[in-house]
Amino acid sequence: MNAIILCGGLSTRLGDITKTIPKILLLIGDKTVLDWQLEKLKTVGVKEVVLAAGHLANTLYNEVGEERLGVKLIYVIEDKKLGTGGAIKHAWDYLSKPDEPIIILNGDIMTNVDLPKMCENLKSESDGLLLGAYAPDVASYGTLEYNEECHLKAFKEKEGIHQAGYQNGGYYIFNSSIKKYFPSKDEFSIEYEVFPKVQDLYVYEFNDVWIDVGVPERLEWARENWVKFKSS
């Protein structure tokens, strides 16, 4: 199983907090976000992770090195802005087994999702599986619409509507077939330019602990409630 962690963003929403430290190295309880994510990837046998880095990439490398928690780390550093989709496309070239399924994690997500169970729900004939995390208010998130078989019907990015629903959880498991939907250009958004076009994506519905630590109040919540992530 391949894995990519997207950790190259500027983290502007966190202000001074991430001026000198990458968001993925922020401490949540007794571990960094990266350590939480690597431990989760190890539960499905991942031994090698590609870090799609950019902002403060040298700081990340100097702090973490080429191996962490027994996992080999490969750094793919963006020399220009690529967007979420472009970062995935670029990092894909560095996978040791590019034709096998790939787990992609946004580097600011904390959750107690059971990753082995999620992987078991990946259909080999599909393009992939998205984590659909329940939120009481999805106004600031991309929302997912899907049928009773959890087949994705529509991906709607940040409509600003205040209602409960299942939003893009920032954990993806793709089969290599999804690459046919990638545009030829270098910079593009996986959310805006790929997901709405993919014909065979499924949703893994999740109702437990999930949070994006990319804004100060959510980071504070995660730090105050970090023990909730230990049950994964």
Defining key terms:
232 residues, alpha/beta, Spore Coat Polysaccharide Biosynthesis Protein SpsA, Chain A, globular
Q: What portion of the residues fall into strands of 2 or more residues?
A: 25-35%
Shape: globular
Helical stretch tally: 6
The tally of strands reads: 14
How much helical structure, as a percent, in the residues? 10-25%
Mean pLDDT: 91
First CA to last CA: what distance? 19 Å
Structural class: alpha/beta
Number of domains: 1
| Low-pLDDT runs | none
CATH level-four homologous superfamily name: Spore Coat Polysaccharide Biosynthesis Protein SpsA, Chain A
Largest sheet features: 8 strands, mixed
The arrangement of helices and strands along the chain is EEEHEHEEHEEHEEEEHEEH
In short:
Helix content is 20%, strand content 30%.
Structure description:
The chain contains 6 helices and 14 strands. The chain is α/β, with parallel strands linked by helices and about 230 residues long. The chain starts with a strand and ends in an 8-residue tail after the last helix. The strands form 4 sheets. The chain has an 8-stranded mixed beta sheet, with helices on both faces. It has one domain: Alpha-Beta Complex (Spore Coat Polysaccharide Biosynthesis Protein SpsA, Chain A), CATH 3.90.550.
Which helices and strands appear, and what pairs or packs with what?
Layout: E1 2-7, E2 27-28, E3 31-32, H1 33-42, E4 48-53, H2 57-64, E5 67-68, E6 71-77, H3 83-92, E7 102-106, E8 109-111, H4 115-120, E9 128-135, E10 143-146, E11 152-156, E12 165-174, H5 190-193, E13 201-206, E14 210-212, H6 216-224
Parallel strand pairs: 1-4, 1-7, 4-6, 9-13
Antiparallel strand pairs: 2-3, 5-6, 7-12, 8-14, 9-12, 10-11
